[in-house]
Amino acid sequence: MSAVLEERQFLFLRQKINDNFLYIGKETAFLQELNQKVIELERLNRELDSIINSSYDGIYITDNKGVTLKTNDAIERITGIPKEYYIGKTVDKLMKRGILKNSVTPKVLKQRRTVSVVQNNYQNKETLITGSPVMNEKGDIEKVITNIRDLSELNSLLDELNEVQKRSDEYERELKKLKGFSDQGIIVESQTMTELYEMAERIADFDATVLILGETGVGKDVLARYIYRSGLRSEKGEFIKVNCGAIPPELLESELFGYEGGAFTGANKKGKPGMFELADNGVIFLDEVGELPLKMQVKLLQVIQDGMLQRVGATKSKKVDVRIIAATNRNLREMIKEGTFREDLFYRLNVIPFTIPPLRERRDDILALLQFFLDKTNNKYGLNKVLTDELKRFLYDWEWEGNVREMANLMERLVLTTSSSKISIEHLPPEYRNDEQDMKITDIIPLNQAAELAEKQVISLAAQRYKSTYQIAEALQTSQPTIVRKMKKYRIEIK
């Protein structure tokens, strides 16, 4: 026979009868419940102590008299004083002894709300102290819980973060240089163009007018858009391009400054904003500014000086906030001498001048640009054409009178009209190949150079016709090693 033992709670009463004591025990569930609550409270206290001590911030608890009841381990790290030292002491005494410079506890008790202060403790550490009241059911303050955060470490981390961000920005700028600004579709390899674009980036956030000079096709509009994209105005306004040479003179004023409804026959009844209004808070790019008639030059000068414009047919002026970037391939100083361009307007536009050199004066950019336009055209049409080394050398030496625009057009033309996957000199349009051939035929040069040119032409022709150096050697009645050596000398490849 087995028995089950159960833990039972009894309430005992003791009564003395003569010289003896009588004990009367009664089983009760109340004592058992009370014991369970005590055990639960002890567990909760242990958890609370663990939570408080695990906090990285200092925690400081006082009663409504300012007497310290509890602190955590972080207090020792922040103040350098053992946490036991605070227990039982009032914050007033701690301040008098210099342990605390200030306390939010009296302020919380007085103002009956959460109070925060920033101060340096006696170790000269900057701390954020926040005190919060704990109310009872009657609305009276029973305790004040103070959180102490060491800001010196946070500030140190912030300084480190700022330093890392600064280095990151520097690395990003260096990476942009290494990429040649290719992330924005700008190909720059030469030192001259690198310095030019770096200058453009530095002045991007200033509102001074910019004048870009250079031959047709050098990329003046590309530079203008780069200045816009690099500046804050790209977040606030539009980039509006105006080709001053493409708009009839009689329409220029209404196109640039807009017109009121009914200003002239055929005008929109509601009127129309001009290019300057559309560019408000942004950038207006006046391409071919040298083509502006003198009458329009006067009006443009007024807009630059006053920041005000007047629509055609309007009686009042309107304020506009526009940055002006102008460009031209003409010699404005010569035009000033001829009386076709206003000198005062020139100096208003020429605050920050840029002169983009022609492609023939920055040959370091040529090969990179050739590859860029080749890749761009291949991707556009789903092709995979390549340039032979001989063609690259030829194009590197080309004068490029039309500059980058000429190159872009030529590469697209070659990719689309050449059936072979390899594009060579023979695939060039006649205006390119004839120039090289005429030079070889008509130039007066020493006989030894003429012999070399003739030899190169014959070997090049044979390399297009035959499939190996042995066949070329047989056709030219010479040895195969000689052919190999001379093809290497003249950089000729078998097609």
Salient structural properties:
five-stranded antiparallel sheet, alpha/beta, five-stranded parallel sheet, 495 residues, disordered N terminus, elongated
Offer a concise description of the structure.
The chain is an alpha/beta fold and 495 residues long. 46% of the residues lie in helices and 17% in strands. It is built from 19 helices and 16 strands.
Summarize the topology.
Layout (H helix, E strand, L loop, with lengths): L9 E8 L2 E8 L1 H26 L3 E6 L4 E4 L2 H6 L11 H6 L8 H7 L3 E6 L5 E10 L5 E10 H29 L11 H12 L7 E4 L6 H11 L8 E5 L5 H9 L17 H4 L4 E5 L6 H13 L1 E2 L8 E2 L3 E6 L3 H7 L4 H7 L2 E4 L10 H16 L4 E2 L1 H9 L5 H15 L4 E2 L6 H13 L4 H19 L3 H7 L4 H11 L5
Parallel strand pairs: 8-13, 8-14, 9-10, 10-13, 15-16
Antiparallel strand pairs: 1-2, 3-4, 3-7, 5-6, 6-7, 11-12
Helix pairs in contact: 13-15, 18-19
Care to describe what's here?
- With 495 residues, this protein is of the alpha/beta class.
- Helices cover 46% and strands 17% of the residues.
- The strands form 5 sheets. The protein has a 5-stranded antiparallel beta sheet. It has a 5-stranded parallel beta sheet with strand order 9-10-13-8-14.
- Strand 3 and strand 4 (68-71) form a beta hairpin.
- Helix 13 (366-381) crosses helix 15 and helix 18 (469-475) packs across helix 19.
- The chain is elongated and about 150 Å long.
- 22% of the residues are buried.
- Mean pLDDT is 84; it is low at 1-6 and 434-442.
